Amino acid sequence: MIAQARQLLKRLYGYDDFIGLQEQVVSSVLSGQSALVLMPTGGGKSMCYQLPAMVREGVGIVISPLIALMQDQVEGLKQVGVRAACFHNGLDPSANSEIIRQLLNNELDLLYVSPERLVLGGMIELFSRLTISLFAIDEAHCVSQWGHDFRPEYMQLGQLASRFPTVPRLALTATADEQTRNEIRQQLGLLDAPVFLSSFDRPNIRYRVLPKQGAKEQLLNFIKREHRHNSGVVYCLSRKRVEDVAAFLREKGLPALPYHAGLPADIREQHQRTFIQASHSIIVATVAFGMGINKPDVRFVAHLDLPKNLEAYYQETGRAGRDGLPADAWMVYGLQDVLMQRMRIQEANVPADVRQRDWARLEALLAFTEASGCRRQLLLSYFAETSEPCGNCDNCLHPPRTWDATEAARKALSCVYRTGGYGVSHQIDVLLGKVTEKVRSANHQQLSTFGIGKELSLNQWRAVYRQLLAAGYLEWHGEEGEGLRLHERCRPLLKGEQSIALKQDQPAAQWKEERERG
Ligand code: ADP
Ligand code: ZN
């Protein structure tokens, strides 16, 4: 049967052979087994269900959350002679009954169904009157209740296992952190099914993270120096910032367009279309942008604000270099980002276990941003993949210099202890011996830590606090969101039992020069 699938691959799609894990997945489904398939975007997931659906007897049911994408796929399939249709709530009654007629007459190889249509009455009953070759659940991470793409309709898919025990179920996703993976297996009844995990490595993407020092100027310099005539995506956290950055880039002569959920739909579509069609275009966007966008020649993805977690970072940066040519994933981040994220998690109205999970995800993200080892290795390890240092990320190309920050860290931590709260700026004012209004009113010029940090600059102290926060020595605390406090973890450091090396922040300009020399 696999030979038959291979023939179809050649005849219908013109491909000589399977890529990656496709052959293994197809064989497994052809033998009637259910499976979970984890492949990065662009990894070739659709073949994994389209081919077995055609080879096996009956109709393959594909559940997918994006109607526009389903319609594209169905159009493509029809053009090569596959009998496919798309079932969603936007169909008029006659189109609707035509599909039902085709189904009952075994005239379809593939039926794409939107989640909304699926939960409409009668679907499961209709299915039970058909011979079904397989169920493919695309974007399966939508069953994850705490994920950002949660679709309540996907919960209905749990019953497929009991209603159709002999029909293989294939769950597919590009989202693969351990917890999401387990949730999918649980929800879709795949605990005993094999898991096919492809490599998530995108070797042509070069990862780079820099300390934020005037983000907009940094971005402008990066684009001007390295991507003067290229297309790229710039991600920002808020709509206001998107507008601001897009206007700034345009003012500097770059073809930048804003994209966020607050813009009218027609403007959004127009900007998206321009971006996809133009050979030189920059889209400045919130995370609302990207799902289902396939522009192969995106040469850079820039983050001006910290993404939500590593998963999101991987997805967002994964939109660069789809054509396989070199591309940059570039990010600046600073102390403020860490504080913002901590607040976001602290203030979110969610159950304790979810908050716990968000903390863990933030820790993983911060470990990535502050890493002094290979970033790719770290990113892949998040997806449970082991690899060697890549030689193609900032840290591999330019191993960061570290310095013995034991003394500085002790001063920084003691200051937090002595002030009993307060934010980073105030701690630094105290260390530098500045008599500000706040210092005076709290009488902090009397503290033993007042003025003991003059050997470092404001920026150096900010870097110290940022890294101490990222490493969890300090935590952000306070219902009024006002101060830092010590974490258990810093005890050995304060007691002189441990030393600490911190990374030296390299100015962006230096990085570039070194790169040219190297
Ligand atoms: P995903 O759904 O995982 O994002 P797709 O199924 O859309 O990926 O496939 C990504 C791209 O790879 C498509 O352009 C597809 O035509 C191509 N592709 C898939 N399978 C093969 C193959 N066996 N040989 C060559 N190209 C393939
Ligand atoms: Zn590396």
TrEMBL record:
Cofactor needs: Zn(2+); Mg(2+)
Covered range of the whole protein: 1 to 518 of 718
Keyword Nucleotide-binding set for record: yes
UniProt family annotation: Belongs to the helicase family. RecQ subfamily.
A GO molecular-function annotation: helicase activity
Domain spans labelled Helicase C-terminal: 215-366
Reactions performed catalytically: Couples ATP hydrolysis with the unwinding of duplex DNA by translocating in the 3'-5' direction
EC numbers for this chain: 5.6.2.4
Domain (Helicase ATP-binding): residue spans on this chain: 26-194
Entry keyword set: ATP-binding, DNA damage, DNA recombination, DNA repair, DNA-binding, Helicase, Hydrolase, Isomerase, Metal-binding, Nucleotide-binding, Zinc
This protein's name: DNA helicase RecQ
EC primary class: isomerase
The organism of origin for this protein: Pokkaliibacter plantistimulans
